Amino acid sequence: MGKYRFEEEEHELFRKSLKKFLEKEAVPQYDQWEKDHIIPKSFWKRMGEMGFLCPQVEEQYGGLGLDFRYAVIIGEEMERVGTSLTGVGLHNDITVPYIEAYGTDEQKQRWLPGCVTGEYITAIAMTEPGAGSDLANISTTAVRDGDNYIVNGQKTFITNGINSTHVVVVVKTDPKAEPKHRGISLLMIEEGIPGFTKGRKLDKVGLHAQDTSELYFEDCVVPAANLIGDENKGFTYLMEKLQQERLVVAIAAQTASEDMLETTLDYVKSRKAFGKPIGSFQNSQFKLVEMATEIELGHSFLESLIEDHMAGKDIVSKVSMAKYWLTDTAKKIAGECMQLHGGYGYMEEYKIARRYRDTPVAAIYAGSNEIMKTIIAKRMGL
Ligand SMILES: Cc1cc2nc3c(=O)[nH]c(=O)nc-3n(C[C@H](O)[C@H](O)[C@H](O)COP(=O)(O)OP(=O)(O)OC[C@H]3O[C@@H](n4cnc5c(N)ncnc54)[C@H](O)[C@@H]3O)c2cc1C
Asked: Model-level pTM?
């Protein structure tokens, strides 16, 4: 796929150096990470050393002050290596922005430099066993007690759960609030605080190297100084920042689709049946043409969406459309590309098999695709 029209020479150079870094430090190790079910912290540190962690952070807090175009490049190149690297995007573009946007100067000084070097790895804990899509219905509580909050509850499906040193935890600070979302706050809970334990690393269908886990809080004493933003405004902060989360997921899905098409094009040109390349059959051609068309449409849609996001426009409806459509498209492309590989597509040594396992989750997380449609419908006045 061609580059986006907003990419300039410095972006190309950045992409080149990131690609080179990943080819040496991620691609050869990736299969082992998938077997280990975790990406080592040493990789995070190397990413930090190279300036690939949170490059948007202001220079005074250790970052490079770069714009969202660099996040797009990092998202794409990480996804090309494999979807399990999604935890880096979550750290860079989803969790750390809460500190940047709503943290005090003291909090920024305390946390941001470590997030940039990779000494700190962040996670965001919204989902609970009893509340996923219905986020306002969470039951983890944070009760104010002098200079602290006492936190009790459980979170699940948390990306970077095991590796994380700092977790933005969505808590109920006013369980009686009506409507319920008005009683929600964001608390930074650091590894090592008594009462905070990590549960098991969850055994997933895909994203094997991604350390998704449960988190437990039992009479966990968290300094009130760790409250991010104002008390009971957490839901508003989430609604603001979830837009970029959905955009990042949409960009990854688009990249996955492009990668699957490229892989499959190579395959159908070399594999033969009935004395002819698989790619010479009309059915194969039509399938591949349909995929290429959807990928072109996705690229144009994303291009204007990224520009709107960078211009600070309201992207709620369009980003919800992009998130649902691009992730559904990637899921469909995964199935069709596997089919075009025949039996080999079902073998683990072929990349398409891993993509087939990794792709469907994007339709579920970051707000399920059904929830995306409810947002769009509401904005259509329905
Ligand atoms: C690999 C992975 C990583 C994740 N990472 C994180 C993370 O880092 N942090 C975090 O907080 N969470 C994370 N999640 C959780 C994820 O965001 C939730 O799984 C998701 O929001 C759906 O919630 P749920 O699983 O409780 O499903 P439910 O809310 O129980 O939904 C079940 C089904 O019902 C549908 N549904 C629900 N409500 C409606 C409605 N109103 N209208 C129509 N259909 C509806 C859903 O779309 C879905 O199909 C992760 C999940 C996975 C699988």
From this structure: 0.97
